[in-house]
Amino acid sequence: MPNFNRRDAMGVLGAATAVGLAAPAYAAGRKITVGALRFTSHSGSFIAYERNYFAEAGLDVELKFFQAAQPMAVAIASGDVDYAVTAISGGLVSLADKGAIKVIGGALSEEPGIDGQKILASDAAFQAGLTSPKALDGKSFGMSTAGSSFHYMGSKVAVAEGVSMSFKPLQKVGAIIGALKSGQIDAWSIVPHIAKPLAGSGAVHIIGNIADYLPDYQVTTVFTSASNAAEEREMTQDYLEAYSKGVADYNATMIAKESGQEGIDGMVDLIHKYVYTDRPREKAAPSIINGTMRLNEGAALNVASVRDQLEWFQSEGLVGADITLDTLLDTSFVETLGS
Known about the structure:
Layout: H1 6-15, E1 31-37, H2 43-50, H3 53-56, E2 60-66, H4 69-78, E3 83-86, H5 90-97, E4 101-109, E5 118-122, H6 123-127, E6 140-143, H7 149-161, E7 166-169, H8 173-181, E8 187-190, H9 192-200, E9 204-209, E10 218-225, H10 226-231, H11 233-255, H12 260-272, H13 281-290, E11 301-302, H14 303-315, H15 325-328, E12 336-337
Parallel strand pairs: 1-2, 1-3, 6-7, 11-12
Antiparallel strand pairs: 3-10, 4-10, 5-8, 5-9
Helix pairs in contact: 1-4, 1-5, 2-11, 9-13, 12-13
């Protein structure tokens, strides 16, 4: 089995030239590394870690944080990270095509009745008439990289509205926020815990909802190396079960509000250890609460949404036309939806 190192993985993301399979990340003592972004939507991992669900499953977990989806995919492929939650990107699909990774579950989906990702306009563009997605024609839309979830969402909105936009790659979420606030780009889409505070500041404006265009969008997924999925099935199942306990706690507390305000306050305290850590708790709490979206119970995976994303990547020439869902997914661990 050939090694798939960091340089190889970067090559796939940049030029799709590296070939290989990630070496198993499994180590004695079941020590694993879990990748995450500092987003409320990654709370399943934070809760499972803080409430010892990973430990109870026999997993000694280290959390490793990233600033964008594609570097996490590289880390999984190179063996630096064992499991992670991230959006499907062109780079992730290319790594799956090279035998490096597998999507094994769902993490976050757009759902009717649950506040989801917002479409934003800069104040300058808004004042010039960009007050709804119908007015996006000729405008610039921010994204991290070509083939990112931002690129996919913006393209889907543009097609639905019959408009044409330009896409500006800015690599990191912080850079996109800065460009939007300063008017260097006209529009963007992002989860509500980021969108609402930005809109509240007056620097940007909410002009629409992604759920109106992609009502069952599988926003983020759980993924691992192909070797973990195939050769470390017990460890992978243990990871998913522990992660899913964290998800269930989050949904029960923040969506169903089963523990009332006391439960919400406690959950906010937990999440604040990882999200908006540069703010005092009283200022972070509204943004954390604004980010409440239902996470996929049991890591259930919406295969229909993933299929749509893969077909879009292929239609844009971002990934190979011969890549199949089976190349990208291993659906043997969780319930599937919309297949």
